[in-house]
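Data card: per-record layout.
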Amino acid sequence: MEVFEDYKRRLEKRFPRRLEESEGEIESLRIRLFHSLKEAKKYDGAEKLYHETVKKYDDAKNLSHVTVTGRDPTKSEDTVILDLKHSFAGMLIELKKFQEAEPISRAVWEKRKQCPGPPSEVSKESHRQLCSVLCAVGRHRDAENMHRDIYQSGTMDAWALENGDEVCQRRREQGEFRRAKEMQDEVWKERLKQHGPRDDLTIRSGLRLIGFLDELVTIIDQEGGTDAERRFNISHKQAFKCEIEVILRTIWDSRLHLEPTIDILDAGHQLGVILSSQSKFADAEAIFMPVWEGRKRQLGERAGSTMSTGSLLGKALYRQGTRETYLRAVDIFQGIWLVRQTVMKNGDAETVASGEDLAQAYRSLGDWPNAERAYRWIIHHKEQRPGCPTREIEDARWNLGQTLYKQGMDKDREAVRVLGTLYHQWHASSPNSNETLQCGQMLGQSLSTQNGRIDDALDIALDVFNRRGASAESGVAYLDSGRLYGSLLLGVGNFAEAERILEVVWGYQAVGNEEQEMRFKCGQLYGQALAKKNKYPDAKKILEAVAEAQGGISTGILDIAETRRLIEDVNRQRKEKEREKRSNGRRGGFLYRARQQ
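The structure for this 597-residue chain is written out next.
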């Protein structure tokens, strides 16, 4: 700062009469240097220069000196000095010195708010700065009061509405969500009336209002109380959710006039999420599709928000449950999965989740080979990811095991390897869990096709059958376990045990078509077991009962045809047996007569 003193001494020596006029020029140089030091983040030098400049200004003011601006400092503080103080307060805020910034910022605001007429932009900026400092030092109520004074000043112009938005934020910071929501609702409706739903500030007010409503819903979810209070809270919660949907639709529908902005696309995304949560998947698809296309145009297909919307679009299609929507979901999931692999780490959670979405869609289409490839990729990357929970890896292996099982005998060897490891792990920790028993059922079926593994298959099938029978929830799974164990017993020639097991499951009181159809499969096997024991009348009786019942619930034609074939097979076996007995009888009589002679 010696440059100014040197400059001043030289002026005084050469032009003593111009010294007074040069004070303004020196002050201007100091202020410009202050801003340069501040921008260069040389804060110590900037602070020292600020204090020197303000001190000289105050000294001149006390001496009733008239500055180069021609204004009397005793009557009105120099605008340039106010700007300097405002900038210095901003520097202190950058340095997190909020306590030091607050009195300076307040002094500037107190001076500027005295100016007649509508507030200028610099006055508004001083107001914003002081409010931000008050919030930083924890004085949210004081900041709220400052914003509220502007909002309630009588003229509902842009400045008042901006402060209305800020009142809501201050109330939110103090945990007053209901009061914040009420004020934000006022501001939203006023902006809507003045500027329409397309205005950017209107949209942002609407999105803030949605944020408050979401927080109120969360608070209600956490509240207890009496039954009456809970019912009252539930009605409020539903009302808040309806408000959210109405606001989002208002914002989203504004896109019809022009290309939707980022905020409108955000509103559409949120609306699609709400519709999906209501199981309105076709409606959600109709929202997500233009949001996805709009985000691809504006942000690119690699943006995280674009991929997020695409994933939700794929899920909305998938949840509609038709082959056509499964195929469309696969196309979307494939694209997102490939993009995630190029822009993110292959094994990160979001990329793996996209792979899981795709694999599930493949499974629904019965495209087991592609599902298998996806699950192998998922398992590999989950195993490579540090800290990945063991259960997540097991779940991926379980999905792979099911996919291998569905591909039939060609994949049974691999299915045995994957399912066997899981079954023994789960059986040791939770032998009666539904997942363990499902795994055992598939493992037993796959083992039965492997050379030398039939005894292992029988042991597992028996264990599953017994545990299913002991469970309070029997149903289809219990019948299926009996079907598997009974069929394995038939395969090894243990007809008596097969008859006993299949008689039990055939006598099960099935409820619903799914249980009835599984019971009929057990009945077919029961009839075969009786036939193997030469109980042909009983076998025929059971199979005819199966055929009659199948017709009663409109079972598939192929199932009924199979039962008819089994009946014919039993009749054929009975006739062959009778023919054999007659033949043996004639042969026995001839030999007896021969011995008598």
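Known properties of this structure: Residues 65-76 have pLDDT under 50 and may be disordered. Residues 574 and 580 are 10 Å apart (CA to CA).

See the next section for split statistics.
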